[in-house]
Amino acid sequence: MPNSDESSDLNRVRKPSEKSSSSGVSSSSGQPANPPPTNPMEGGHWRPVRPEELLRKNAPTERESHQLDDNPKLIRQRRQELEVHLKSSPTDQEAFRELASIYRQEDRPQEAKRVLTEALRIFPDNASLLWDLEEAKLARSLQQYREVSDLAARLKTSEVERELKRSREDWAYRRIEVCEARLKRDPSLEHLRLVLAEAYIDTEQQDKAISELDALVKNDEFSPQAYLLRGKCLLSLGHDVQAMASLRAAGLRRAVVAPLQTRLAALRLLCETAQRLGIELLSEHYQRHLAMVEAEIAKSTTAAKMKRV
């Protein structure tokens, strides 16, 4: 959101193999081991859906983003110039996009949305403008969620809680709206199905989430995260046996080794579920694997700290 190069809040969906992995999943909603997160950046009751993971991937590249100096005075001056320019030259598409980018840089996604909506009225078939408008809508929804969450942290009133619930739902439905639209335009954007599944989960539409995840488990690039989320959905629906099969695929599969954090989350859920069902031998088996993963994570954390010293 705040950066003109789109690198901070809503810039791109990274595939699981890239820097922002989709692995930090919390406990299931059926019988959670931990209370649901309240931070808006933690994606509701499930995994952290980081803004940089969201939807900016393979965006149209008709032009390079305008790079502005970080000097607020120069940015403000350029914004004013563009507003005046567009009044006399309302068909300058690049000016619309640059102005919207400046509003995003200034953390004003609602103004960016206004500018892009006007641009699309003039250029209704422009894919780049449509993409940018979707980004602005997402940024505005996330901004509102953050604002209400900050307020809720200070004021514990029923009215604020209702507004928090509303803004959380809006954030999930905006993700659904944009992901569905982009997949309809380009079904090859498979990485969006993880984001879409998580948004369905946040709106308690587990069946729809499972449908999206079923399409991803066959793809080795996305299967570890897809199996993990699928297992959590099945747990929340009370399908423990099927859930454990999905969680084993996320945590123990040798053909496609999942990221450490994905394996950690899956094995913790397997341990909890086996203990709850009273399957002692399986519980001990999963505990051994969990201990190995935890040791591996501790080792890699120590190595990373030593490298920074």
From TrEMBL:
Biased composition (Basic and acidic residues): 9-18, 49-74
Location of the region described as Disordered in the Swiss-Prot/TrEMBL record: 1-74
Keywords, comma-separated and alphabetical: TPR repeat
Cited InterPro entries: TPR-like_helical_dom_sf, TPR_rpt
TPR repeat copies, ranges: 93-126
Keyword Endoplasmic reticulum: no
Low complexity bias (residue ranges): 19-29
Protein name, as recorded: Tetratricopeptide repeat protein
Species annotation: Novipirellula galeiformis
